[in-house]
Amino acid sequence: MKNNYPVTSVLLSINLSVYIVLSIIAWNGIEINDFVKAYVGFDSQAFHGKYWKHVTGIFVHIEFIHILGNLLAILAFGTLSERYFGKRNYILIYIISGVLAQTYDHAVFCGVDLLIDVNYCDVGPGNSVFGASGSAWGMKGALLVYSIANMKDLLSSSIRSKLLYAPPISICIIGSLMSHGLFKENLVDVLWGFGPDTYGLMEHVHGGAFIIGIIFGLLIITKRLYKTWGT
Questions:
Q1: Of 12, 61, 81, 224, which sees the most CB atoms within 10 A?
Q2: Is 129 helix (H, G, I), strand (E, B) or coil?
Q3: pLDDT of 126 above 60
Q4: Any idea what the CATH number is for the domain that residue 107 is in?
């Protein structure tokens, strides 16, 4: 996969490497949630001097099930994004979806006043936004648009490709729906994350990223159609 999907390989390596480093830190007796919040997890401090937190948070995982699910998502949706959108667009979708989605999540949970006062939004000790799931949901949104616009090409893909991608994609979709309580709450609330009292911090990331991904997909398809018409 390294030769065919270099960007996906790099993203998988970065996420896994960060997880391993954080695991080593935790094994040495350091409270990992506090460490993540202080140095790499996204929180209101990202708007007040610790600007690197806008990006570092989308590569951070501290639980095995969390990193496993997101590695599967990157493997499934990342390889498809790299194939269909190209390396540059894929990187933009991954980073911008993740960054904007966690900003949206924090704004909904805390309000825009967090831009004024770093101490305005206290989400509790050790709490911050992190994980690659926002980026993954951005890819899902973009791929949804691509799938609708290129349905014929996708249906005619080889059996080998379908067998390769179907299991991890199914696991990611079912896991996302179950973890968001789809069978307990209505779909609109799940996607948009209305009501922070119901879902809490980080539960707006996925819905926001999904919409951002759809916008990216529309932009990419529109640009390609414009080039086609121009020739």
A1: 81
A2: strand
A3: no
A4: 1.20.1540.10
